[in-house]
Specification:
This protein is an alpha/beta fold and 243 residues long. The chain has a domain at 16-96 and 157-241: P-loop containing nucleotide triphosphate hydrolases (Rossmann fold). The chain is 35% helix and 27% strand. The chain is built from 9 helices and 10 strands. It has helices at 54-62, 83-88, 106-112, 117-123, 140-152, 170-187, 198-204, 222-225, 229-241; strands spanning 16-25, 28-38, 43-47, 67-74, 77-79, 91-94, 158-162, 190-195, 207-212, 215-221. The chain has a 6-stranded mixed beta sheet, with helices on both faces. The longest helix has 18 residues, at 170-187.
């Protein structure tokens, strides 16, 4: 596989970090003064209501969205490299829209990503009987397994995953999140997981950042925030009630 290998956990230097990051579109900042980090071997959840700035944060971390201020640090070094360069150095990104080519078979999608069918099926045995099937004929859950297999099969250093659970049944979501957790535990991959479903995210995460209106409003280790679930979920409700 043609990608950078995952690294052993290192508690001293975050694999991916931003400090005072503001970014957006034109003159409008979608996220403001964000401090966030992802270390090796941990799953970090970034949660919040629609429009909170979660996807914009991921795009800025990936190099797809230019910072207005602040900095992004990749493996300890400040970077302004474009997304393609960060992907070559070990960044994996599963976008909100399933990143499969619908008119290719599952096997062809894997080959295009440089991932062997054996590696993909080791991650998701469910894909084995589907390799010759056109991706457009797969269920939503199967497409998302294929997307995640394409990303994890390249053995990234850091994985950014945007809304893996969107529109999927709970059993499929549990399967995807278990694969993400295993990638962190077994291969030392750092994972930043954007997720709207609070309890599903906290079930697999080590740390959590809660966003609202472009800013981080709550953050900390998951074990310290379990007793603040009502407060965290209230950020979603207050956003829905806002004009």
């Amino acid at each position: 596989m043609s990608s950078a290998p995952a690294v052993a956990p290192d508690a001293t230097t975050p694999l991916l970090e931003c400090r005072g990051l503001s970014a957006g579109y034109g003159a409008l900042a979608a996220v403001r003064n964000i401090d966030l980090q992802v270390c090796a071997g941990e799953v970090v959840a970034l949660i919040g209501p629609n429009g909170a700035g979660k996807t914009s944060t991921l795009l800025a971390l990936a190099g797809e969205l230019e910072p207005m201020s602040g900095e992004v640090r990749w493996r300890g070094t400040t970077t302004r490299a474009p997304m393609r360069a960060r992907c070559r150095s070990g960044l994996g990104f599963v976008t909100e829209e399933r990143s499969v080519i619908m008119n290719l078979t599952a096997a062809e999608n894997l080959r295009l990503a440089g991932v062997s069918a054996d590696a993909a099926c080791e991650l998701f045995p469910e894909l084995a009987p589907l390799l010759k099937r056109t991706a457009g004929l797969l269920s939503g859950g199967e497409q998302q397994m294929l997307s995640l297999a394409r990303a994890l099969g390249r053995n990234p250093v850091v994985l950014l995953a945007d809304e893996l659970s969107l529109g999927l049944a709970p059993l499929v979501v549990a399967r995807l999140l278990a694969a993400v957790r295993a990638a962190a535990d077994e291969r030392g991959i750092g994972v930043l997981l954007v997720e709207q479903h609070v309890r599903q995210a906290l079930a697999v995460a080590d740390r959590v950042y809660v966003m609202d209106r472009g800013s981080i409003v709550i953050s900390g280790p998951v074990e310290e925030l379990h007793n603040r679930l009502d407060e965290i979920e209230a950020t979603y409700l207050s956003s829905l009630d806002s004009p």
